[in-house]
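Dear colleagues,

For the upcoming journal club I promised to circulate an example of a predicted protein-ligand complex. I picked one with zinc ion because it came up in last month's discussion. The inputs are reproduced below in full, followed by the predicted structure.
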Amino acid sequence: MAAVETDRDAPSALCSEFLNFSAKDTAAKWLQVSNLPKEVYQHLACYVPKIYCLGPNLNPQNEDLLAPLLLQSPLEWYLCGEEPSVGLAKLEQNNQPSQLCGHVFKVGEPTYSCRECAADPTCVLCMQCFLGSVHKEHRYRMTTSGGGGFCDCGDTEAWKKGPYCQKHEPNISDSSQKDPLANLSDEMIARTYNVFSIILKYAVDMLTWEKEDELPEGLEPPARGDTYYCMLFNDEVHTYEQVIYTLQKAVNCTQKEAVSFATTVDRDGRKSVRFGDFQFCEQAKSVIVRNTSRQTKPLRVQVMHSSVVAHQCFALKALTWLGQIIRYSDALRRILCQVGLQRGPEGENSSLVDTLMLCDSKMWKGARNVYHQLFMSSLLMDTKYKKLFAIQFAKNYERLQSDYVKDDHDREFSVTDLSVQMFTVPSLARMLITEENLMTTIIRTFMDHLRHRDLHGHFQFERYTAQQAFKFRRVQSLIGDLKYVLISRPTEWTDQLREKYLEGFSAFLELLKCMQGMDPVVRQVGQHIEMEPEWEAAFTLQMKLTHIISMMQEWCSSDERVLIEAYKKCLSALTHCHSGFTDGEQPITLSMCGHSVDTIRYCVSQEKVSIHLPLSRLLAGLHALLSKTEVAYRFPELLPLSELSPPMLIEHPLRCLVLCAQVHAGMWRRNGFSLVNQIYYYHNVKCRVEMFDKDLSMLQAGASMMDPNHFLMIMLSRFELYHIFSSADCRKRYNRENANKDVVQQNNTLIEEMLHLVIMIVGERYTAGVGQVECFDEIRREIVHQLCIRPMAHSELVKALPENENKETGMERVIDSVALFKKPGVTGKGLYKLRPESAKMFNLYFHHYSRADQSKAEEAQRKIKRQNGEDSVLPPPVLPRFCPLFASLVNILQCDVLLGILGAVLQWAMEPSGGHWSESMLQRVLHLIGMGLVEEQQHLLSSAEDNDTNFNFTLKISRPGEAPANTPSILALLETLQNAPHLEVHKDMIRWILKTVANIKTTRECTASAPPSDSSGHSQEETVRDKDKAERKRKAEMARLRREKIMAQMSEMQRHFINENKELFQQSLEELDPSTSSTLEHRYTGIPPEKIKQIKHEFPLISLFLLHSPSSCDSTLFCVGPRRWRAGGSDRRQVVTCILCQEEQEIRIDGKAMVLAAFVQRSTVMSKNRKRPPHNPDKYDPLFMHPDLSFGTHTGSCGHIMHSHCWQRYFEAVQAKEQRRQQRLRVHTSYDVENGEFLCPLCECLSNTVIPLLPLTKTSCSSEQPDLSQWLNITSLQMKALLSAHRKAKAADADGVDDMDGVNDCPPPDGFKLDYTPKNPYSSTIKEMLTTFGTATYKVGLKVHPNEQDPRVPIMCWGSCAYTIQSIERLLVDEEKPLFGSLPCRQDDCLSSLTRFGSACWTVSSHATVQNHFIRLLAALVPDPRVENTPCILDIDMFHLLVSLVLSHPAVFSLDSSGLSADTAQLYFLHLVTVAHIVQILLSSVPEEVQMEQESGGAEREEEEKVCMFYNTLRTHLGSGLREVDSGWHLWCCVKAGILPYLRAAALFFHYLNGAPAPPELHTLGVGEWEALCGYLCLPSNLLQLFYNNRELMEPVLHGWCSHPGVLQGLQSSVALIRFPRESNHLIELPGDYSALINQASSFTCPKSGGDKSRAPTLCLVCGAMLCSQSYCCQSELEGVDVGACTAHTFACGAGVGIFLRVRESQVLFLAGKTKGCFYAPPYLDDYGETDQGLRRGNPLHLCQERYRKIQKLWRQHSITEEIGHAQEANQTLVGIDWQHL
Ligand SMILES: [Zn+2]
Ligand SMILES: [Zn+2]
Ligand SMILES: [Zn+2]
Ligand SMILES: [Zn+2]
Ligand SMILES: [Zn+2]
Ligand SMILES: [Zn+2]
Ligand SMILES: [Zn+2]
């Protein structure tokens, strides 16, 4: 890039020229000239190349500065005729803005639509308008915009109601009719006109300019240099990677630069990748082309002269400028529209707007965006010109679409995408249909692009080339346009509209003709098909057209004349199609039961058959409409009824249904999955409305016009069952027919399907027009049948119902009448449950049930009936009446052929030998008989009104067969079957039938209309027997379920163990059985015995606590100090059971080690400073925890105990398995074995180490103990001796110089043996486990490699103990639970083993190291000049200090044999640390302003005085550093509140360490806590006494603390001190309404790529940071791996654990480390109690506090990682996600 240097200075060289420029003068000159365009062009030709494109790196500052000054300003001067700022302000003032909001949406911005009032789903409001509109009270939908499109507020056609928000409400004086130009002077109009036409023409010329080296006439630059750009254009063919790779090669840039080029090309559509002389650029071009031309077409590259690029740059600027200028006034906007649409010199379609549109696909993305924006803010905002633009758009439609189909850019970058803005406006759509014949144009254009047809003229998608497939995808957008045009139905029809609509309808029929019969299939026999045939394209087309077809019918239904014409057209199209079919149609005659009919010979199983019959189905739809609107009865003469040939109508739909039946019967197995998929979609809710449902309607229509016997015979013949039922002795023949077993099976299924079809033809009457129903009845029935399966959530119901073109199901209007809503709990969804009274609509053979649905529903309904103590029979429901046109269908039930079929099946069922008939078959037959009876009852009921009682089903079924067969009647057969033992399951139905028959007979005999039969009430005895049987069955089922559950809980590993210990496990499983449990513990604890057994089994430690809860409250309990409570010998005995080997084991110092599965993790949950950078793990000294608790180590456990050796064996097995698995398949697991992770073998809880269980230490305290000052003295001597000994040892180690001054002067006090090495009391396995856990804590807590020698190992263990106790103390406060007695067992176990481990871990470390830690710790408390680097007390967390002191002390204490007690030391540590904490609190917590002193009762008087005195003592030490406070009351309040968490934590600590039961006051919430705590901790309730009782001793200590330089620094520092008590951390506050979050996220831009919208804005719920997730731009490197913004953020904010809300997805994201994560249900619910992950449904979402609190609790409990583990175990796909990239 050598050319850069010389050109850099160019602008400054011109500076003087620029400075002398006057916009005003230029404008004035322009006013004089005669040829203005020429003058302006000259100006542009002169200046544009001087401003733009002067180097490779465009210099935006100069351009942005100079362009307005030199180019825009003179134009504005000219336009206004005065100072532009003044002129434009005037314009704005006079403007009467239109009522349209027109706000253009950004990507990700929330948009709102009203489900009740929007004309169609594309009508949306911006958030501002929505909040000011009536719709916020309606059922609205919320979505996020994909960018583009604008707010429809103010558009009266877009909204059925409330078109204006408050802001856009029109004034009373209606100004919309007035021409905005009226406000402008004629001169102004003329000038504006001049400027706009010159500039717009200039911009259009430049943007559509195709020459690379020349400029349009009049723009040639004065001077021409050899400066060129190598311009790279975007395409959607090449990948990012390809482009980046090519660029690196072609222009020698770094990968980073290449990425940046590629990003810009993708965003703007083009980017110059090289600047220089022609040769230089040409060279790069050839490399790029060469490199990308191999497989696909090459990348588009142009070498362009710099002046051309310069003018193009300015042209874009000019368009933007136009967009801005017209905002000042609607008049200017109208002038611009006029200029744009003015016909050009080339005549029609040659306006500037036309030119732009027609060149759309040739322009680069950036240019398209700019001019589309201008169109939206001008043409589409002006009511008059929107119409004219729409007309031009329609005129150019075909061309534009063809360009679009050939172009490869996404539709959002195409001008065709503007169609939605015009076509959805009902008045425009109607106008375009009538005047521009738009409907026909769209359909014809669509057809034109699908020219690939087979011999019959059908679409052929088979063997599409990639090119054709691509085109097919793009051309589908035309269907979208057609949908827009049709979406609002006309309320009034004109003749012209009728004509054009019918013309469009004819075009549509042509389209359907190409689909009728496409993709035919032929049954494959012998071999399986070799290649799955293509089927998806055809179904895609069908699915896309489904709504169109429905809308076509709705248009037809709104005008009778149109309906009749459309019906005729459709019929003739269908007839035309059928005349082409010639498949094996030779006539044959069928005869049966005395009837005969002629038909053709055709076998679905042998000949071609197609699922695609859109013409037949459209006709079926129109036929039902004719019936519904009653046109058929009023104008029969207008209808071509005579032309109808019912057999022709039913033929193809029947074939299709037979195909489905045969597929079910397994006859088409060799045809592969493609056919199975087609059948699936045929019935699927997305397609069935215009496929399956209409085929059924067509059969109903055809059958209603035929003799039912003829119809049924044809049906039998198509089902290929005719031969079975046709012979005279069919009843026997079938029985003997003993062919292939498969064939019998097949025939059985076919008979079942055939019977089902008959049931549906007679029984499905819920289509308006077929039955006498409204459309809501249909939806209601649909919902009832869904809810008969089980209660469902709103979204499940929506999914099960067909949606109309507005994405509405109509469910809301009827749901409440049939269902009850049940709100959700903290998990789960809100559910709708069927109202009991609605169950009577239940039809077992509901046509939309799959076989699985059917059996589920049957089971559920029978169960409900049994529960209500009713007969469980499910008879057919009472049905609505048919419309007259379909009324004859009921005769199918009583026709001879059907009765023959029914009789045959019943006859077969007489014999139990299976194979020749099936239960389902019989059930269907019984159902059909039931339908006949119900129908007859209905007829009898209504016979009073109309004398139509020739329906006599009972008579027909009572009639025996005629001679010579003399078969028994159906009724007789049923009576016989009633007692057949093999028909137990059908008995209740048979009984119901017989009873109903009897009832009908009585009714007929009585003639009077009796009430309908009562179906309940059979013998009492039988009910009891049934119930017994059911109960036994239920019990057996429950037992089975329980067994299964237990088995499921065991992991594979466990099974391994079970195999080894079979008997033991058998035993323990039996023990789980409640019946064998003992009741002893029950009496003591009140816990049910079975629970105790279980607890004992799962949590062995707990059993101890259960039995040792404090029994007496009379004696005072101390948990610390010489007088503390001590466990007796038997209390200390602790026996636990290993979950792996089931052996019992006593916990003993010298016994086998028992361990608890545990999980150690870093934590920032309690952090008060999230800004603190993570420590350097290698150098960090963790001895003193800072009070901001910024990083801690938390230990948790599931509470399950194992032998250490059992655990080791288990872990080794896991490791081995993992290694094998990783070698075999590169899969991940939810746990990281290499990091020591495993799942608890019992509960699968994620663990990464184990804690050894230790017994309580034996202590006694006999001799008199020293007081504080004596003890301090002794300790001080001990420290001195130790220190000098250590220094000596160190010096000796160093072999070094003897500079030990005074080292030998410190003899140890009596009984303190420096050289004594205490014996380690623990068994070898316990020692091993002590090391294991210590090392794990160290490794995880510091993020370092394990090193058991590291001196920091014990420190980390103490720290984890302290941190875990603190976090649990906080948790108890937050959950408002008492300190003791409310912890779950697992936490109790965990804390007790953790503290006891803490006191033992020194035994496996270097004693000197631990002693040294102790010396340093103590020095922080009792200042010691010999110890360096002691922090000041403001920088120490006192509870951590206390725990570390107590736990490190044994290392020193073990050297002592003087009879001192460890308990004494513990007590004095507690005293000293408490005083230090009081000081810390007083120093940090004194508020700015002291409130009025409050008088309190005498009881606290003393405390207040003392604390006041104490504070003043502090002031004497610190002087002005401390504010003067004389409110003792206030100070005492501070102390009391500030120290409480510390005291509570200390109580927990000593409780677990020493085993002392807690006093009952601490087992409850409420008053008395303070006294109880102080008592339990052996502290005076006036804590200041700790100071004043030992004043002489404490004064110097206090002085020592205060004189630490850090204290004064801390007090004076600007950084706020940590205040006590530390508040619990909360997750951030979330807004109540989810759209507020969407709005917030939509204005969030990626912090790294300068102002770009972030694609996946993600909110950290811990700190509130918004992140740009899942995107390359914000990746960063973490420990050598590229990670996304979220993962990177968790490392600082959450020590590796993160909780996020993905705003666009409405999804909570949990992350842990770099490899673990899961999604979690968001805390936002819609009104139906459901979350909307992915924001697909768009229902308004509101914050559910309980759910958010639950997430917060998971976080506070440190359970996020565990939750992820469980989620990943449950759903293996989560394991494969690259979480680190989020
Ligand atoms: Zn708006
Ligand atoms: Zn508005
Ligand atoms: Zn509304
Ligand atoms: Zn074991
Ligand atoms: Zn467990
Ligand atoms: Zn980013
Ligand atoms: Zn954060």
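Two points we might discuss: The chain has a mean pLDDT of 84. The two ends are 37 Å apart (CA to CA).

See you all on Thursday,
B. R.
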